[in-house]
């Protein structure tokens, strides 16, 4: 109830009303103006969804389970590194849970290997922006240990997807805190006291998925106008035909 004279809400009541959409459609009782409005909205979103992005070098680039490296994770990490080079990024990390589908998903595979914006958005639908920060080599190693420790241990392992030039080994049978080794950037071992410029999405930057080391970063630069899905679109436009869906084997995992 609204007091129109004083422009105040005096009372609020809520009630869940179940509507059988199919029955209403069959009976011809759908509101015609609302149906028309939905049609207009769909036509506008379809126009965006169907925008061509690129022809891939393969039918699909696949994601996988969160406890391993996978081809689409490599591509997304590379896209975020490319998008943040101007901010000095040397390494990019992507959380596996943020990759929601293959590219394209199975129902949208096309003979031409084409992907549209809808395909890319299905992969990364959360609208995270990109962030760049400084981490030491020791912090990066501690970050990688968090993939398989604490709340990310046992059946909840979360292997961060990493960008080109960054490699390491992960021994799942080693002692907690000593599972990560041979961490390198462009073939050179990471130095514990050296500082590295690292990129990730805004979800990870605040410690998402239990990666709390990101909260220790210094010289943090938020990029509010750089959305992860846009970074991926830009990367695919520039490199799509060269992407064959091949796993890059940047992470060596032993059990």
Radius of gyration (CA) equals 23 Å
Provide the succession of SSEs: EEHHEHEEHEHEEEEEHEHE
Beginning-to-end CA distance, first to last residue: 63 Å
- The DSSP helix count reads 7
Shape: globular
Mean pLDDT: 93
Q: Widest sheet: strand order? A: 7-4-11-6-12
Poorly predicted runs of 5 or more residues: none
Helix share bin: 25-40%
In the CATH hierarchy, the architecture of the largest domain is: Alpha-Beta Complex
Beta percentage is: 15-25%
Q: Estimate nothing, just give the exact number of structural domains.
A: 2
Total strands: the figure is 13
Q: Could you give a quick summary of the protein structure above?
A:
By secondary structure, the chain is an alpha+beta fold.
Q: Can you characterise this structure?
A:
By secondary structure, the chain is α+β, with helices and mostly antiparallel strands. The protein has 2 domains: 20-47, no CATH class; 55-254, 5'-Nucleotidase, C-terminal domain (5'-nucleotidase,  domain 2), CATH 3.90.780.10. The protein has 7 helices and 13 strands. A 5-stranded mixed sheet has the order 7-4-11-6-12. Strands 10-9-8-13 form a 4-stranded mixed sheet, with helices on one face. Strand 8 and strand 9 (180-185) form a beta hairpin. Helix 3 (71-83) packs across helix 7 (228-239). The model has no long low-confidence stretch (mean pLDDT 93).
Which helices and strands occur, and which strands form pairs?
Blueprint: E1 2-3, E2 8-9, H1 21-26, H2 32-49, E3 52-55, H3 71-83, E4 91-94, E5 114-116, H4 117-123, E6 129-136, H5 137-145, E7 161-162, E8 166-171, E9 180-185, E10 188-189, E11 195-201, H6 202-205, E12 218-227, H7 228-239, E13 251-254
Helix pairs in contact: 3-7
């Amino acid at each position: 109830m609204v007091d129109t004279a004083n422009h105040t809400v005096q009372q609020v009541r809520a009630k869940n009303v179940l509507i059988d959409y199919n029955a209403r459609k069959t009976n011809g009782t759908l509101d015609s103006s609302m149906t028309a409005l939905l049609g207009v909205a769909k036509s506008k979103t379809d126009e965006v969804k169907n925008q061509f992005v690129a022809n891939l070098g393969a039918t699909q680039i696949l994601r996988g389970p969160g406890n391993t490296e996978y081809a689409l994770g490599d591509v997304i990490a590379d896209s975020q590194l490319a998008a943040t080079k101007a901010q000095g990024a040397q390494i990019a990390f992507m959380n596996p849970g943020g990759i929601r589908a293959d590219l394209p998903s199975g129902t949208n595979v096309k003979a031409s290997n084409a992907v549209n914006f809808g395909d890319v958005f299905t992969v990364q639908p959360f609208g995270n922006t990109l962030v760049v920060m400084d981490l030491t080599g020791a912090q990066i190693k501690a970050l990688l240990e968090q993939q398989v420790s604490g709340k990310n241990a046992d059946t909840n392992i979360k292997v961060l997807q990493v960008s080109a030039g960054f490699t390491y080994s992960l021994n799942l049978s080693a002692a907690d805190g000593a599972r990560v080794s041979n961490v390198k950037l462009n073939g050179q071992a990471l130095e514990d006291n050296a500082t590295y410029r690292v990129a990730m999405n805004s979800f990870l930057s605040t410690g998402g998925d239990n990666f709390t080391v990101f909260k220790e970063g210094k010289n943090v630069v938020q990029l509010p106008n750089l959305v992860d899905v846009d970074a991926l679109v830009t990367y695919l436009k520039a490199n799509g035909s060269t992407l064959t869906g091949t796993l890059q084997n940047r992470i060596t995992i032993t059990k």
